[in-house]
């Protein structure tokens, strides 16, 4: 059975100032998502599930999803603020989504096979998709859930125009993930980086660290853990305005309690991302260079 690709595309991009998932960055009008789907098809994925919001359903399907209908099976899941377990409700005044973990939970009724999860606004490169596809093709849960992650080098994932969120990773002697911590405000500092913490303190990084960019490989067993953990999260944080249920938090918890083992692979490709509108010219130029070198055709679809 071919693995499925789950694309997180529900965010409006508040720092970017628009629906960046639909922004054109390729020479023939391609979006970043177009390149991800193109690479995923080449790597052997058999289905793509887009997680979006209901209010962007029509423009998203027209501008993005319709491009692939004859090339790969396409399905949709919807992340809504009020999609909560029985007994919980959205606190008055909350507008912020519940996070990437909550988004992935919205797929639990339509995924029965191993699957990868990526961000819709990150350009990962074809190597990472191939690594995950090969790993997922043989993924079998044993005494622990068998998960995987494709990591990137921190200094290669930073914006020149502001802070970014990154999952800082630690590996054990076997090369498996031992810990992942979400840092929400990481900025470039020459070839190094600084993370600004919520309490006003800061943490310095060398820039060589492996980080998660939400390029994960999971088996469907993830959902049974997530269901329970999301209820526990809401018990503690459900009345807050900005707390989020992040994928790295879920993974880190399952590693520490012995429920999952996460194999870490490192992509050889460069990462490009649009966090701020000022990032776009660099992304456009980088993709153009890849096209010129023959890594991608002038027109994908």
Question: What do these coordinates show?
Answer:
This protein is α/β, with parallel strands linked by helices and 301 residues long. It has one domain (4-153, 212-292): Spore Coat Polysaccharide Biosynthesis Protein SpsA, Chain A. The protein has helices spanning 32-43, 57-63, 100-105, 126-137, 222-237, 247-256, 280-292, and strands spanning 4-8, 47-52, 73-78, 115-119, 122-123, 145-153, 164-171, 177-189, 192-196, 202-205, 210-218, 260-266, 272-273. The strands form two sheets. Strands 1, 2, 3, 4, 6, 7, 8, 9, 10, 11 and 12 form an eleven-stranded mixed beta sheet that branches. A two-stranded antiparallel sheet has the order 5-13. Helix 1 links the parallel strand 1 and strand 2. The longest helix is centred in the C-terminal third of the chain and has 16 residues, at 222-237. It is globular, with a radius of gyration of 18 Å. The relative contact order is 0.20.
Task: Give the SSE layout.
Blueprint: E1 4-8, H1 32-43, E2 47-52, H2 57-63, E3 73-78, H3 100-105, E4 115-119, E5 122-123, H4 126-137, E6 145-153, E7 164-171, E8 177-189, E9 192-196, E10 202-205, E11 210-218, H5 222-237, H6 247-256, E12 260-266, E13 272-273, H7 280-292
Parallel strand pairs: 1-2, 1-4, 2-3, 6-12
Antiparallel strand pairs: 4-11, 5-13, 6-11, 7-8, 7-11, 8-9, 9-10
Helix pairs in contact: 1-4
């Amino acid at each position: 059975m071919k693995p499925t690709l789950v694309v997180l595309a529900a965010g409006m991009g508040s720092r970017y100032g628009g629906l960046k998932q639909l922004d054109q960055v390729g020479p023939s009008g391609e979006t970043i998502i177009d390149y991800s789907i193109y690479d995923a098809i080449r790597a052997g994925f058999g289905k793509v599930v887009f997680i979006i919001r209901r209010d962007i359903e029509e423009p998203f399907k027209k501008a993005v999803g319709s491009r692939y209908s004859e090339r790969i099976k396409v399905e949709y899941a919807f992340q809504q603020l009020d999609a909560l377990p029985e007994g919980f409700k959205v606190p008055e005044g909350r507008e912020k989504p519940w996070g990437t973990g909550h988004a992935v939970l919205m797929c639990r009724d339509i995924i029965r096979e191993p699957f990868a999860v990526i961000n819709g606004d990150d350009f990962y490169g074809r190597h990472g998709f191939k690594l995950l596809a090969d790993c997922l093709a043989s993924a079998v849960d044993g005494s622990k859930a068998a998960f995987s992650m494709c990591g990137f080098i921190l200094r290669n994932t930073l914006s020149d125009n502001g802070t970014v969120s990154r999952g800082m990773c630690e590996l054990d002697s076997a090369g498996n993930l031992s810990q992942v911590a979400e840092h929400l405000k990481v900025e470039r500092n020459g070839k190094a980086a600084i993370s600004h913490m919520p309490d006003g303190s800061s943490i310095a990084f060398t820039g060589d660290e492996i980080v998660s960019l939400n390029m994960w490989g999971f088996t469907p067993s993830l959902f049974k853990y997530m269901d329970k953990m999301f209820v526990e999260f809401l018990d503690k944080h459900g009345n807050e305005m900005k707390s989020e249920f992040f994928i790295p938090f879920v993974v880190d918890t399952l590693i520490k309690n012995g429920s999952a083992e996460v194999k870490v692979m490192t992509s050889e490709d460069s990462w490009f991302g649009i966090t701020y509108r000022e990032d776009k010219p660099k992304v456009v130029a980088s993709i153009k260079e890849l096209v010129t070198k023959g890594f991608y055709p002038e027109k994908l679809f």
